[in-house]
Amino acid sequence: MISCFRCWKTWCWVLFASLLLLPDPTHAEGPGFSVGLGFEVASGAYGTGTRTDSIYFPFTLVVYPTERLGFSIEIPYVYQSSSAVNTTVFAGPGGQMAGMPKQAAAMNGSPMGGGRGGGGGGSGSMSSANAAISDQSHGGLGDITARGGYVVVPEGDHMPRVRPYVFVKFPTADRNKALGTGEFDEGFFVEFSKQLGNWYSFAEAGYTFQGNSALLALKDYLSYNAGAGRVLGDRFLPMLIIKGASAPIEGASDLLEMRLKLKYLATERTGIEGYLAKGITRSSPDFGSGLAIFYEF
After folding, report:
1. DSSP string, 24-87
2. 3-class DSSP string for 121-162
3. 190 versus 180: which is more confidently predicted?
């Protein structure tokens, strides 16, 4: 059974990789580039009784070889006020950045525990070892994530734009400081977006395959992200977004939060995004906010 699952997973990656290499009939004049710099902060107890504040500074580079094909790499700096939880477990889809979705800072923060299948993780209580270091703050390089997506269906009068994408998360963060899981993650998403007059809406859903950790009882999980908003004038777009996922750790609750997101086109090449978030479930942060600036070359 395990070998069959691995074969199925391998063939899925081959299929997506082949999709990304398809020739693009609408080739742009040349490759496009954009860079982004963000700041995100979240705070919550995550069912542990210890409040953890986390800060996420992502730098993102996006490359568009054609109008329909895009790749990105995100390099974050992560800070946590305590080691009681790991707030970087969940890396579900965030907002849209110059047409390339990014993965936002993880928000699960379930307590540290045993490895997958080993029990003990995510139950809302800390081990004595974790309790002893729960008041220690740590910062450093986070997990680097690479993504690639291809627009298989351009937006039409009645059809939404459809773009699947795949991603790989590299374990560059220090798991001993609860800045990452120390494992590779892979996954895929499908994104739908449509504009009707001044109204814009999007939805995406996907699945993440997590590695086997000796510190966390990690689970593969489904995540989703959807929102709608109305363009005001030519440059301002406020949106209401729902963001969630199934539990990424044994014993954790599902993740769910609401976001008010504001997008502003400062110039033809410069965009500014900000959001306020309110967590709804136990494993989500109590509240969060973020600000990012993007420039397209």
Report:
1. -SS--SS-EEEEEEEEEEEEE-TTTTS-EEEEEEEEEEEEESSSSEEEEEEEEEEEES-SSB-T
2. CCCCCCCHHHHHCCCCCEEEECCEEEEEEECCECCCCCCCEE
3. 190
Q: Please report which helix (H) or strand (E) contains residue 271, including its range.
A: strand 270-279
Reported as a single tens digit per residue, the pLDDT across 256-286 is: 999 999 999 999 999 999 999 999 998 899 9
DSSP-derived letter for residue 237 is: E
Fold of 2-296: Porin (2.40.160)
The Cα 106–Cα 93 span in angstroms is 10
Closest residue by Cα to residue 263 from 196, 191, 202:
202
Question: Do 103 and 39 touch, CB atoms closer than 8 A?
Answer: no
**Helix, strand or coil for residue 261?**
strand
Distance CA 137, CA 249 (A): 22
How many residues are recorded in the chain?
297
Residue 86 or residue 166, greater confidence: 166
E-strand ranges in 151-245 read 161-170, 185-196, 199-209, 221-230, 236-245
pLDDT digits (tens, 9 = 90+) for 108-165: 333 323 333 333 333 222 222 343 445 688 899 999 999 999 999 999 998 999 999 9
Share of the chain above pLDDT 90, in %: 55
Domain borders along the chain are 2-296
Q: What CA–CA distance (Å, rounded) separates 263 from 127?
A: 42
Provide the whole-model pTM: 0.77
